[in-house]
Amino acid sequence: MARAKKYDVAIIGLGSAGLTAASTAAKLGLRVLAVERGRAGGDCLWGGCVPSKTLLASARVAAIARDAARFGVTTGEVEVDPQAVWSRIHEVQEQIAMTDDNIEHYIEMGVDVREGPARLVGARAIEVGGQRFPTRKIIIATGSRPALPAIEGIESVDPLTTDTLWDLPEPPAELTILGAGPSGVELAQGLQRIGAKVTLIHRRDRILPRHDPALALMLMERLAEDGVRLVSNAEIEEVQQVESGSTMLTGLVAGEELSFETDRLLVCCGRQPNFESLDIEGVGIDHGDRGILTDSRSRTSAKSVYAVGDVAGRGNTHTAGFDGAMAVRDIAFPGAGKRAAGVPDVVFSDPELATAGLTFAEALERYPRSRVERIERDLAASDRSRTDGDPPGKIVLVSAGGRLVGTQLLAPGAGEAVGGFEAEVIARTKITKLSGRIEAYPTRAFEFQRAAGDRALERAARIRSWLPRIPSR
To answer: How far is CA 383 from CA 73, 357, 442, in A?
Structure first.
């Protein structure tokens, strides 16, 4: 009997992390086995980034057209064809599936691709379809799935999630979104702008609880202007199907009883990692509530097994891809692969809310209060905001001991602008040095320089006040 081929690395899951790991490994000349039990591309392509951002692109165009008269442009009555918007979303998904995420492309690179569920057989082998494949290293990149909240009756009403929303033949005309994190906010604004009637329910007094409160409240006002019905401080206790076919939600809002019907319910209450079928416990791999536990090199407690992306609690697509590539680098050059740190985060609403590094609240948890400073600059004073007619926005710089540890920006294109300051956050650049950075005018990034410059001048003025008066000549 011929001995089974031994691989250098077996990759389980071909989402953003797995696909990047597979291509990196193939380019480095490693013998690669890749396994996928569903569609290649993962959550990003089929349930997350790609469909939601395509929706938001149409929604943004609709909003600009409705507001065109403010810019001296007459368009007539604006009509949105929701079915055409939905069709375009599916077309973009298929374009990516047939190009960047096409399995044939990886096979041509030399990757051995297998279909079906996989499980670990020890720390140096996996099993697919009853066949055992020995390998030196294993990368788990199985992603995550939507989590349902602990609400009575939630499963019986078969709510929509980000995994199932895009499979509808057309967008819903009316729906309630449960959860006001990034996904809930983006979908609420996008669907409302293309004609849906949207209610957004959240448990706190504001949306986006992990983001800067002042910026989140400004964005909350923008959603209200778009027509999104916002229900804050809500505790949904029960969900049930009624005779009309709609869904009834009951609970409390700020202590008062709440009860109303909705055509469709969309749950955006976070995600949970996919690892139950892998038999990681049998290999002695540790995990927690957010996923498989890893070290700075993405290694699990079984050092020949790596975990990257959502399954390791690392939720951003760009983080997943980077970590996947670095895991392969660590396999090829042990000790050389460090997972991503200080990654930018963007809510792709209009305006966008982008974060690099720590928020002010996070900095207070990490550093003494006396060393933490919050520097704000209202973008009403930005020439670019004036020329473009931007909605209200703001920049926040967070410093500790005079060094930049975080920054947030609420503005159109914030994701593009804040990324340029990620290196400054990682380097803990002095605020005074940041003020000397030259940005193009007029850009929104120019306002970072101005915010830092204002603080540097305040510091210089204080220092000068301590110096002896220089006699005039």
So the answer is: 21, 26, 6
Q: Which two tokens stand for residue 192?
A: 């409302």
The secondary element (H helix, E strand) that includes residue 23 is helix 16-27
For residue 135, list its beta bridge partners. Answer: 7
Question: Encoding tokens for residue 150?
Answer: 């602990």
The whole-number pLDDT of residue 469 equals 65
SS3 285: coil
**Distance from C-alpha of 392 to C-alpha of 202, rounded to nearest angstrom:** 23
| Same domain membership, residue 140 and residue 13 | yes
- The predicted pLDDT at position 316 comes to 72
95: in domain: no
Query: 293-298: which pairs have CB atoms within 8 A and are 24 or more residues apart?
Result: 294/339, 296/338, 296/339, 297/326, 297/327, 297/330, 297/335, 297/337, 297/338, 297/339, 298/323, 298/326, 298/327, 298/330, 298/337, 298/339
Q: Distance of CA 415 to CAs 125, 166, 252, 348, Å?
A: 41, 24, 36, 8
- The CATH number given to whatever domain includes residue 250 is 3.50.50.60
* Domain assignment of residue 174, yes or no: yes
User: How many domains are there within the chain?
Assistant: 3
Contact 143, 311 (CB under 8 A): yes
Per the domain annotation, does 472 fall within a domain? no
Give the C-alpha separation, 219 to 354, whole Å: 12
Separation CA 27–CA 19 (nearest Å): 12
Closest CA to 268 of 144, 148, 142: 148
Quickly tell me which residue has 């949904």 as its tokens: 236
Same-domain status, 220 and 247: yes
Assess whether 25 and 132 both reside in one domain.
Answer: yes
Q: Is 59 left (phi over 0), alpha (psi -120 to 50) or beta?
A: alpha
Q: For 252-294, how does the pLDDT look when each residue is reduced to its tens digit (9 = 90+)?
A: 998 889 898 999 999 999 999 999 999 999 899 999 888 999 9
More confident residue, 307 or 465: 307
Structure confidence by residue, pLDDT tens digits, 132-177:
999 999 999 999 999 999 999 999 999 999 999 999 999 999 999 9
Mean pLDDT of all residues in 343-371:
93
Give yes or no for a contact between 185 and 347, defined as CB atoms under 8 angstroms apart.
Answer: yes
Alpha-carbon Rg for the chain in angstroms? 25
Q: Is residue 80 part of a domain?
A: no
Distance CA 391, CA 412 (A): 8
Nearest CA to 19 among 124, 91, 103?
Answer: 103
Q: Are residues 189 and 106 in the same domain?
A: no
Do 453 and 361 have their domain in common?
Answer: yes
